[in-house]
UniProtKB/TrEMBL annotation:
Lineage: Bacteria, Bacillati, Bacillota, Erysipelotrichia, Erysipelotrichales
Protein name: Metallo-beta-lactamase domain-containing protein
Residues of the Metallo-beta-lactamase domain: 389-501
Source organism per UniProt: Faecalibaculum rodentium
Keyword Mitochondrion: no
Transmembrane segments: 6-36, 43-61, 177-196, 208-231, 237-256, 286-310, 336-357, 364-386
Amino acid sequence: MAVTLFFLTIGIWISCVLSDPWLVTGFAGLWGLVLWIRMKKPAVCIFWGVLSLTIVAGILWNQAFPEPDPRPGLYQVYEVRAGYVLAANGSSRILYQDQEANIHDELYIENLKPLTGLKNLHLFDFADSMAAKGVRWRGTGYIRTASDSLQGRLMRYVRNSPAKMAAFYGIREKDSLLVKAGLPVVAFLMVFENLLRRRMKPNAVHFCLLPPAILWGWLFLWPAALMRWVLFRLIRLSGLQPLAAWSLSVLLFLILQPEKAASFSLVFPALLQLCSITRRRSCTRYLMALLQILYFGSLSCTLFGGYSLLRLLSAASFALAFFDISLEIEWMLPEIPIPAAPVLLVVAAILLLRYMIMQKHPQLLLCSLLIMPVSPYLDPFFHVYMLDIGQGDCTLVVEPFCRSAVMIDAAGNLYRDNAESVILPFLEAAGIRKLDALIVSHEDFDHAGAVEAVQDGISVHTVIRDPTQPVPVEYPMLNLLPDRTSPDENEGSLLTYFSYDGHGYFWPGDAGILTEKLLMDTFADLPVTVLKAGHHGSASASCPAFLEWLSPDLVLLSAGRNNRYGHPSPEVITSLQSMNTARFCTAESGMIHLASWHGFLFLETAEGQVSCLSTPAGR
């Protein structure tokens, strides 16, 4: 019974994480096959099928009948984070940016706007993380009434103590390993539980710790880690086996807080406890490493090697917080950035190999994690990444096996540091340690505003502003019409053309119709598979005659969401539609990623669109 409940719980948990009807349907079929192979009980498989259909039907119902858009009015704060709070009015939830609002405060919201943000592969998407919590709108207004509840008064009392806010609420301006290792109160309870077990029976220990833990949860808003800790121990009091108690505690948590199904504060402690229950403690270290990579895109040498010590330190930070002492660890080893996607592929391959040969070699997993830092140098694909940078341009071109990396433009932004928040983090996530060249099409801020900041953050071999300057790569990459004269800076943009795997790419900066006519007069033919539309899709470029002459298979447009220029222009969109040319815009799709290999050309976007654009036979 415990094993059956465990497998059903895992299936429900993964379904909650996937949350897409097609993905859930596919997973349900695969998991049903696993249940049949593992248990060979028709009743269990039928129950899983009914349960899966219910989950899919629930998802489809929510998509067909979404919650109505929130309206201005009164909202009550139900969650406080660093720099913002979440508030609700009935089923409507919004985000409100304020440093002073506390739990249960009453807000009057005057204006509402959709919560949007930049969407880039491998980078944290704040808007998506809020959408997972059911929050899709941002409100502005004022605090109408300060809460008089005990929880509200308690938060106001500790608000000026960073140590208490971090230890009691998990609110910290900058994340730390102590936060990643687990909420300090849970670490404190676990350490105290181990001490009590030396003198008391397990049930007596639970009776001693559960009342203060429940009281603490009520006072400090039930953090996810603490809620699951309490649920597990409450269920254990009934005498259920540890595995069954673990399964029921996860199920109850998913019922109470389904939006946190994929949260690190649930996944991390729950899976570590599962390793302990199933007596597979040797896997704990490898699981910790894998979760770090998947959630944070890096591997902390300290946490990988010393979780027990960090748990003690986390418990100590909780105790010291009562005295306003913040425990900061200065001696921690550095973190190694590791992209998550290749890790998943390698781990899947190892698990398949292990299943085929039916041998236990956990050292294989460790070896796979150790080679991940060099995984970009094992990648045979040619990559073109058009970053979602807002109203501006930034493209990264990476040769197979990371033989070279070239960036075309690095846009600035008046309201954020694009280099610090987008460009440099993406380069780190992609495993790029240096740029062979940074091509600046022209000096407009939306193309060159972050160039100096990028140079400060990563080694750049050469910055190319002169069209006659060669690009230091081994494949064809050159700037067309280097000797032309132009009436303005936009028309004088560098015209970067490169080709690889039989596909041509043309990036014309902000060059307009005059330059396009000059190109048509100069070249009899220019083989282009992918065109980045000039001047962000403005009507001053991409004239119908030029588009017909190039006849690209795909047109990319780089523009900010709801930009004040109206890019891309309706005229350009109409021209592309009349030609039946595929198009993708960063304002709609987020980052656009192209990957080619021996004539194949694949596309993926940060919004989840995937396509095979070309095959060797179709060239």
